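Work Package 3 (structural annotation) set out to generate three-dimensional models for the target panel prioritized at the project kickoff. During this period the team completed the workflow that converts sequence records into discrete structure tokens, so that structures can be stored uniformly alongside our sequence database. As a representative example, we reproduce one entry of 220 residues exactly as it appears in the project archive.
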Amino acid sequence: MILIVEDDHTLAQSLASFLESIELESVIAHHGLEALEILKNTTIHGMIVDMMMPEMDGVALLMSLRYLNPKPFIIMSTALGSLEDKAKAFELGADDYIVKPYHFKELGYRIQALMKRSLIDLRHQLLFPHSFLDETQLLCRVNDQPIVLSKKEFHLLFHLLKHPNIIFTRQQLLDAIWGEESESYDRTVDTHIKSIREKVNSPDFEVLTVRGIGYKGVIK
């Protein structure tokens, strides 16, 4: 089920019709507060969220969803296309960003890609041509060779790779991996990323630094 959060009624209905044409069910909310009510009673797998809406805009909605578990994938939809706007959306937890006006088919491709990633999440495994990671066993192999990672290093790498090309701030990574361990700080993330890079040399992926923001996992 896809939740469309869009204050333009005509666009929202057109999106719902398009999703139906590619065999995806959807439900519509016209602002953030309505979306939160739907989330209380409906299992939502993904969301298409307009950034600028009345009552509660997309930014406020994303902030409300930051600690939702499990969290549906979120595609931000907006006419604001600057790098700063995109960085803000990713910083708040968006999984993708599409600028209006856009072609519905492009949106469909983005949804399908995120749905595939969601299935990977459910299996707790990441399989690449030369590498394999299993979250349940904390197992990492590259070219059939086991890589010894600490528990935090493994979860940090797995988190970045299961959300490829998504930029995470250091604080988001601290929240996701260290949780309530409040003594951890930004430098902790940098130290663990450095250690991961020293230990893991995979032809399938890498962890990139996004200057001024944080890190992202990239599939080669």
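Helices lie at 9-21, 32-41, 58-65, 83-91, 104-123, 151-162, 170-178, 186-199.
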